[in-house]
Design brief:
By secondary structure, this protein is mostly helical. It is built from 16 helices and two strands.
Length: about 400
C-alpha cells in the first residue's frame, strides 16, 4: 500500500478522536461552563449537524480544487474548529467551534476515499479506502480513551488543543505524502448532483441510514447497559468502549479484501450478521464475558458494512463520485443521530435497558432489505460498476474504483 495512505489514516485518526471524545467529556464541560449534562449534549449534535451540512456544501465548493490542496484545506478547517473549541469562552461559542470542526468531516472522507482509490491498482481500491478508515477505528481504541483521560486530568480544553496539534501533523503529512494526482475532467456541480440522484446511489445512502442506525441505537447507550444490566463498574466503561474499537478495527481490516472480492455479498452478509448479533446482545448482556465478546462482534460486523457502503455509492456515481462519497458520510451521521433517538424512545417507553439492542436489530434488518432491493433492481444492469476519472493530461479514461457487485 502507498505511504500516502498513512497521511489519510492520520487525518482519520484526528477526526475520529474529536467526533467521539465529547461523549466522555460532557460532565466536565457542563461543570466548567455552568450548564447541565443534557444541554451539553447539544455539543455532540452540533458536530453531527456540521457533518451533515458540510459534506455536500464543501464538496460542491471544492469541486474545482485539486484533490491534494482540497484535503489540506479541509484539515486546516478541522484544526481551526478544534482550536476554536479549546479557546471558546462560553457554551455558545463552543457550539460554534464544534459545528466548525464537523463541517469538513464528510467532505474529507469523500475526497479522501476517491484519492485512496486512485492511489492503487484496480482490484485493491476497497482495501485502500478501508486503510484510510482504519485511522477512524484506531481512534476509538487509543485516541478517544487517551483524550478523555487527558481532559479529565487537565481540563477539557487540553483535549481539543491536542486534537488541533494532531490536525497540524495531518496537514503536514498530507502535504508531504499525497502525490500530485493527474488532473481530472471537471465534472461541475450539476453533474455531481445528477450522479447523486441516481436510484442506486439513493438506495445506497438509505441503506447506510438504516443499517448504521442499528449500531448507534446500541452504542449510544452501551455504557448504561454495561453498568445497569451487566454489572460492570463505571470505571470499566472505557475498557468496554476500547473493546468495541478493537472490533471496529478487525471489521475494517476484513472489509477491504472482502469488498474487493464481492461487494454486494459482503454488504448483505455484514448487515445480516449485525441484525443477528444485536439480537443476541439482548440476551448476552446479562453475562459479563458473553457481553464483552458480543461488544467486540458488534464493532466488527458493524464496521464491516462501512467500506462496501462507501464503495457502492462511489461506484454507482460513476464519473462524479466525490459528492456521493461525501453524502454517504452525512448519511452515517444521520444514522448516528437517528439510531440514538430511536433507541432512546425504547428506553423512554420503559422497555428495559436492553431494548435498544432489539431496536437496532430491526434497523439493521431494514438496511438489509433496502440493500437486497437495490441489488435486485441492479441485476442485469450493464452500467460500469467502477469509479471513472478522465485524465486531461493524457486524454484517456482510467478505472479507479472496483469491487465486484454481483
Amino acid at each position: 500500500m502507498p505511504l500516502a495512505l498513512l497521511a489519510l489514516a492520520i487525518s482519520a485518526f484526528g477526526i475520529g478522536t474529536t467526533e467521539f471524545v465529547m461523549m466522555g467529556l460532557l460532565p466536565n464541560v457542563a461543570d466548567d461552563l455552568g450548564t447541565s449534562v443534557p444541554t451539553a449534549g447539544y455539543l455532540v449534535s452540533a458536530y453531527a449537524l456540521g457533518v451533515v451540512l458540510g459534506a455536500p456544501l464543501l464538496t460542491a465548493l471544492g469541486s474545482r480544487i485539486p484533490r491534494k490542496r482540497m484535503l489540506v484545506a479541509l484539515m486546516a478547517l478541522f484544526t481551526a474548529g478544534n482550536l476554536a473549541s479549546a479557546l471558546a469562552p462560553d457554551f455558545g461559542l463552543l457550539i460554534v467551534g464544534r459545528l466548525l470542526a464537523g463541517l469538513p468531516h464528510g467532505a474529507f472522507f469523500g475526497v479522501g476515499a476517491v484519492v485512496a482509490a486512485r492511489l492503487v491498482r484496480e482490484g485493491r481500491q476497497a482495501r485502500a479506502v478501508a486503510t484510510m478508515f482504519l485511522g477512524l477505528t484506531i481512534a476509538n481504541i487509543v485516541g478517544v480513551p487517551a483524550a478523555t483521560s487527558l481532559g479529565q486530568q487537565f481540563g477539557w480544553r487540553a483535549t481539543f488543543l491536542i486534537v488541533a496539534v494532531i490536525g497540524l501533523v495531518a496537514m503536514a503529512a498530507l502535504a508531504k505524502l499525497i502525490p500530485q494526482l493527474p488532473a481530472e475532467e471537471r465534472t461541475g456541480l450539476g453533474r455531481e448532483l445528477r450522479a447523486l440522484a441516481d436510484r442506486q446511489v439513493l438506495l445506497g445512502l438509505l441503506t447506510t441510514v438504516f443499517g448504521f442506525a442499528g449500531i448507534f441505537a446500541v452504542y449510544s447507550y452501551l455504557a448504561s447497559m454495561m453498568t445497569q444490566v451487566t454489572g460492570f463498574a463505571e470505571g470499566s466503561v472505557p475498557l468496554v468502549l476500547a473493546l468495541f474499537g478493537i472490533g471496529m478495527t478487525l471489521g475494517a481490516l476484513a472489509a477491504g479484501p472482502l469488498t474487493d472480492r464481492a461487494l454486494r455479498p459482503t454488504l448483505y452478509g455484514s448487515l445480516a450478521a449485525l441484525a443477528l448479533v444485536l439480537t443476541a446482545f439482548h440476551f448476552t448482556a446479562q453475562v459479563k464475558w458473553a457481553a464483552l465478546v458480543t461488544v467486540v462482534l458488534i464493532g466488527a460486523v458493524g464496521f464491516l458494512t462501512t467500506t462496501p457502503l462507501q464503495m457502492l455509492v462511489m461506484n454507482k456515481a460513476h464519473q462524479a463520485p466525490t459528492l456521493a462519497a461525501a453524502s454517504n458520510q452525512s448519511a452515517f451521521n444521520l444514522a448516528n443521530a437517528g439510531g440514538a433517538w430511536v433507541g432512546g424512545l425504547a428506553l423512554a417507553a420503559n422497555w428495559g435497558w436492553t431494548s435498544p439492542t432489539l431496536v437496532g436489530a430491526v434497523l439493521a434488518a431494514l438496511g438489509l432489505a433496502v440493500a437486497v432491493l437495490a441489488g435486485l433492481l441492479d441485476r442485469g444492469s450493464r452500467e460500469p460498476s467502477r469509479i471513472v476519472a478522465r485524465s486531461e493530461d493524457v486524454g484517456v479514461t482510467t478505472a479507479v474504483g472496483g469491487g465486484r457487485l454481483g
